[in-house]
Amino acid sequence: MTEQDMPQVCVRCHQFKSANLGKLVWDRNRWHTRIFVCYACREKPQVVRLARQGEETPIELEARKALEGLKVKASAEFKIGGFIFDFVILHLRMLIEIDSDTYHRSWKRSKRDSHKTAWAQENFWHLVRIKPPDIAQQVVHAVTRRAQSFR
């Protein structure tokens, strides 16, 4: 039995799949490594993390999974206007910031957040700030509401 005939684990959904239900592709981060992605996951748009690789917090993970569930093409850790926003949905011109209570409690952080908000308004971006709990529910609600108003 060759490597391509053996059941594989999809790198996105982490489920065992028959080799004929997916494809081995080259990993973008490690050029010499091939990874298995099932066809179901290849059809879903993936939220791509553009900066701060490996530093995703649990609440950012929850928001990312909600965006992937909505099948929205988004980017995480998007650099724009001298700031890094948690998520951006370009076709909706929407920025999403996840504000945890512990990280955004300081005066310095709140001042930086107010600068981000002002920049977004000046440049005609729709900025949504989401706080725990119910991150996924808030993300779904904000994106669907923006998609309806954006039409």
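The record above closes out task 2.4. Task 2.5 opens with a second protein, given below.
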Amino acid sequence: MVISLLQQGAHLLTLIIRRQTPADYPAIAALEGMPPEEVAAQAAGSPGFTGLVAVHESGRLLGRASAGFMPHATPAGDLRCLVQVVPAERRHGVGAALWHDLLEAVRPQHPAHLRANGSPHDPESVAWAQRRGFAVTQHLLYQSLDLAALDPAPWAALVAASPFTFVTFDRLRSPAGEQRLHAMYQEYLSHTPDAAESPYQPFAPWREFAFGTEGAWPEGWMVALAPDGCWAGFTMAQLPGPAVAHIYMTGVAPGFRGQGLGMSLKAAAALHARGAGIARMTTLNHVRNAPILAVNRRLGFRVEEEILRLVRPGE
């Protein structure tokens, strides 16, 4: 337990920083805008998780700091961090105190890098992170498509007119098929604006990421087959929540790019998801990935959030 005295206007604020407990979950959920059960799942499901809360001596939550390894979402050895303070308590040193104690708590884990998310619409928070050694490495767009409102007719016509055949990956899955998809995934990833942030992943951890994570949905992945049977493109998706599909990769193989395949491939994936009862499709793309952003706009995706990836060396 750490107790600090912070100047808050003309008053002294008694700040207590301690490890979070299940009793804190409702207040944390309200602060971070998530259900309490998601707070619990985060604590239980993130390896090396550390959660700290800053509370007033009365017990009122003032802020929270957390960190955990996310092996399927960040490079190996990197910790994803978050510091959030109740808006009325900002600029009084609560965040700085939480950050200091979080660094001390994670230092024994020797993380390669510390990572956080920011927003271009919150420059004050981004500047706060930059003063603590973080640098912006990516600018991403989180987008969503209302599948329930999607008119399937024009997209079904587009898919039917394509010279490619679109099949779900579960129909092609085999040990060799998994290896083939891994090779296509890594080749395409190396040519995206995210490449520097997404180093090569060997087959075994990639396979665990693709098939072993909660919400894995190979029945919803789409593979485009050329007339000669060659694998020309793919989509990969997961189910992060009820009736929601998240497309985390859409790729077209060399030799098939520039032919409009990305559009018909993503349309086929959307139609399949809609037919499977999925009401909403989401995706995350770098702002410099112009081809896929154009595909998304044409299909009807709308930008919901802009995200800045912030990275600094580990402790």
